[in-house]
Amino acid sequence: RRTCERRPDLFAAFRAENDEDRRLIEELRKQEGRPRITKELACRPAKEEDLPVILSIVDEARAFLKEKRIDQWQGAYPEERDFLRDMLRGECHVVLHGDEITAVFTVSSAHEPEYDDIRDGKWTPDLEACVLHRCAVRARWAGTGMSDRMLRFAEKCSLENGRRCLRTDSQPLRDFTLTQL
User: Fold this and answer.
1) Separation between Cα atoms, residue 165 and residue 181, nearest integer Å
2) Which of 5, 54, 129, 136 has the fewest CB atoms within 10 Å, i.e. the most exposed one?
3) Helix or strand or coil: residue 49?
4) How many other C-beta atoms are found inside a 10 Å radius of the C-beta of residue 27?
């Protein structure tokens, strides 16, 4: 990566000789088009005027999940009214890189009865927790570490609500491989 950035002439002359080199070159080329976190990120409560960007991020997430054959978010949910309700409660947040909204998430401290009877998995029932909902990163920021930063902000919101536990749930992932870059 450093050679690619500082000596593009050497990088252009490099010829991959094995599968490991080819994978590295492919990953570096993917990263060329990605933005970089060059500013301190900020997190703030979402505002109604953020809705067009939030809904655009949701549409991008929907498309990604559909491409991976994951049925989560393939219907009307989440929709504008879900985010408006979250905003009224002060639970919806956006992550900003400068003035650009890069991610959205909701952290709720309200009791959610649907989590009282967990059948697949286990949550500690005696530990008060916040629940992370409706989180997504803008597609152009995928692979940049933005989702990790978003989760750190969600943890902070949970702590600010006096909860040392942040829970989340998801649909089961079938035929989907997560890759750490």
Assistant:
1) 27
2) 5
3) helix
4) 13
Two tokens at 67? 């491409």
Q: What is the pLDDT of residue 11?
A: 78
Residues in the chain: 181
CB 119 within 8 A of CB 72: no
pLDDT tens over the chain, length 181 residues: 677 768 878 878 888 889 988 888 777 777 666 788 888 999 999 999 999 999 999 999 999 999 988 888 999 999 999 999 999 999 999 999 999 999 999 999 888 777 777 666 666 666 788 889 999 999 999 888 899 999 999 999 999 998 888 888 765 544 433 333 2
Give the separation between CA 69 and CA 10, rounded to whole angstroms.
40
- 111-141: burial string, b at 16+ Cβ within 10 Å, e else: eeeeeeeeeeeeeeeeeebbbbbbbbbbeeb
Dig out the tokens for 120 from the structure.
């697949």
Cα 105 to Cα 87: distance, rounded to the nearest angstrom = 11
Torsion-angle region of 143 (φ positive above 0: left; ψ -120 to 50: alpha; else: beta): left
Q: Which residues contact 105 (CB under 8 A, 6 or more apart)?
A: 92, 93, 95, 132, 133, 134, 135, 136, 150, 153, 154
